[in-house]
Amino acid sequence: MKKLSLTSKIFIGLILGVIVGVMVNMMPESAFLSDYVVNGLFKFIGKVFISGLKMVVVPLVFVSLVCGTCSIGDPKKLTRVGSKTLIFYLLTTAVAISIALFVGNVIDPGVGLDLSSLAKKDVVIKESESLFNVLINIIPTNPIGALASGKMLQVIFFAIMTGISITFAGEKADPVRNFFIAMNEVVMNMINLVMKVAPVGVFGLVAETFSNFGFGMAQKILMYVISVLLALLIHGLITYMGSLKVLGGLSPVQFIKNFIPAMGVAFSTASSSGTLPVTIDTVEKRCGVNGEVASFTLPLGATINMDGTAIMQGVAVVFISQLYGIELGLNGFLTVILTATLATIGTAGVPSVGLITLSMVLASVNIPVEGIAFIMGIDRILDMSRTAINITGDAVCTLLVAKSEKEFDEEVYYAKNV
Ligand code: ASP
């Protein structure tokens, strides 16, 4: 029998996780099931996988961005690739929120909900950081501290500065440049090792989530969930697939075939940063993008480009404002588009952070931040879905930039993958 590919194994893990999780959720409650199976076995397997991914994230982002920045070499090219990437990331995020606001206003998920019966009074919402602080904190006063505590925006800033400085130092910096190139190989091999447990890890994560939540969601909240999912789908199919076809002349169907393994991992981990190793691997090996571009645009995207999160925030603003009977108006919508674009830049690529930065968006249009409590309970499943969209945006941008820079191999893109 032909050996199953890692992709197939991950998908088998995912499907089995859903089936087993839903079955466990339907069984009568028992201490054995919850202590030993859900919070024991499933949690253990999932945590081992997540910890393995987290272990490689900081070295990966740092090393790959240094390599990406200094291998682009030519400062002019770096500025060009950097600006194209930033423009694409910011524009698509603004489009994403606009779609979310539109879908939210068409479906009206919060109209007619009985607010009092849903209010969870005991939930404490953490304040999100002010925009001023997010921006000023990008420059690490202690780079080693930033690496040690995994402050991604600071790590990115320091990595890009290091890469640029290596470039300017020219030949004299060759040993440092070669060191980072070699380290990049080492980190990539470490990722391959971690990925060997991915199918089982994905099973554990998904089984745990579904054992806890099952399919029993309140019908009204379900309308909110449907609105978010619909907006994610529209953005994925129209904005992303449309730009691939129109701007890049590439087949969207082929893209999905190539990229789906990474989406599966993003879905089960709900973390763009955690999925980054897989995203880079998939974009290089299955989509045919040269590592030079991918190792610059993808770590950047995993940290600052989160269209799925922006969509959740857009729909959530409409939903919560409807719950409280607050009219947003055109100014309100424009404010939401601006603040949510910036809020997602400050959102770390780990589970649930989008909910915390949502408080910044709600506050900008004077909607009670406590409203987040209504959507907290069901956020995990949306987090999983939006993370898959988050990394898809990074990959599409990477492909388009790579193609425009002629750093793209069409043969690999259209090669038959399993
Ligand atoms: N989980 C998301 C991500 O990692 C961030 C969020 O929306 O909470 O991309």
Walkthrough of the structure:
The protein contains 19 helices and no strands. With 418 residues, the chain is mostly helical. Helix 2 (31-72) packs parallel to helix 7, helix 2 packs across helix 13 (291-304) and helix 3 (75-107) packs antiparallel against helix 10 (219-248). The model is unreliable at 116-125 (pLDDT under 50). The structure holds aspartic acid (ASP).
Keywords:
78% helix, binds aspartic acid
Give a list of the ligands: aspartic acid
Give the CATH level 1 class. Answer: Mainly Alpha
Q: What is the element string, with H for helices and E for strands?
A: HHHHHHHHHHHHHHHHHHH
Taken as a percent bin, the fraction of beta residues is under 5%
Secondary-structure class: mainly alpha
CATH topology: Proton glutamate symport protein
Q: Which shape, going by the Cα principal axes?
A: globular
CATH architecture: Orthogonal Bundle
Q: How many whole angstroms does the radius of gyration measure?
A: 21 Å
Task: Name the CATH superfamily classification.
Answer: Sodium:dicarboxylate symporter
Report the uncertain regions.
Answer: 116-125
pLDDT averaged residue by residue: 85
Q: What share of the residues lie within helices?
A: over 70%
Total number of beta strands: 0
Overall structural domain count: 1
**What is the end-to-end distance?**
15 Å
